[in-house]
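User: Here's a chain of 302 residues. Predict its fold as C-alpha cells.
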Amino acid sequence: MADHTDWPLISVVVPALNEERNLPYVFERLPEPLHEVVLVDGGSRDRTVEVARRLRPGILVVQQTRKGKGNALACGFAHCTGDIVVMIDADGSTDPAEIPRFIAALVDGADLAKGTRFRDGGGSHDITRLRRLGNAGLNLVVNVLFRTRYSDLCYGYNAFWARALPGFDLPDPRLPAPADGSKLWGDGFEIETMLNVRAAVAGLNIAEVGSVEGARLHGVSNLNAPRDGLRVLRTILVEFRRKRRARTTDRRAVLANTQELPTVPRPRPAPTGVVARHSVPGAAVPGQRRHRPAHDDEALVG
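Assistant: Prediction complete.
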C-alpha cells in the first residue's frame, strides 16, 4: 500500500442503513492512515453497527437525529475533527481506494474535490442510458444558472477541507424534526446537489476527480430515476431562488448603509481671483499685500 504518512488528518463519513453485508468490502478498501472513520447509522435493523465495530475497532458510531441522507451526512460532519472530510456510500458504489485521488486534488489547491464518472479516470457499472441523459440535462441547467462547469452533478463522492463546511449552511443536526413528518430542506437526497451548488455560490475552488461508480453489492437501491430527477431539478430551482434572494438582501444592505453615512458639507469655492480668509494661514487677503522673500515670484491677487 502506498505511503500516505504526509497526509493531512482525514475524516471519512459513511452514512449507513442496513448495510452489514456491504461494510466488509467498503472497510477493506479504506486507505491508511486515516484520522477517523465516522459511521452514521440511520436506525439499522440488521447488524450494521456491530459489524462496523468488529471490522474497525475505534470507529466512531453516530446515530442520526432526523431522517434522510442529508441529515446523516450533517450529523457525521458535526463529529469530524480532521482537516479533510471525505463522504462515501456504504453500499460499495463509491470505491474507498480512490480516496488518495481526492486528497491529492485538495492538497494541490482545491477547496472541494468532486467525483465525476464522465471525465478521465471515471466510469460507471451502474448508470442506465436514461439516467445518463437525465444527468446531462441537469448538468446543463446548473452550468447555465450558476456558471459552473460540472460534468457530473448527481454523483455523491466528494471530499473537502473542513474549513469549507460553514459555506454549505446545512441544517443543524440538533434541530427537531418537523411535527408533520416532513424533512427539513437539506435532510433528504437533495443534499448532494445542494453541496455542489452551494460550493459554487460560495466561490470555492472546485476540482473534478475521475471516479468509477460500482453497482450496489447487496440489497436493493432506493433510486428511482424519474422521481429523483425531478427532485434534483426542484433542488436546482430552489437553490437558484435562494441565491437571488441573498443577492437582493446584500444589495439592500449596501443601500441602507450608504443612506446612513453622514453627509459632509462641501466647502463653497471662493470667487475667481479671491483667496478666502479661512484658507491656508499666511495666504493673501484682498486689499493686503503678502510679503515674500526677494527670490520668490510675485503673485498678483486680483
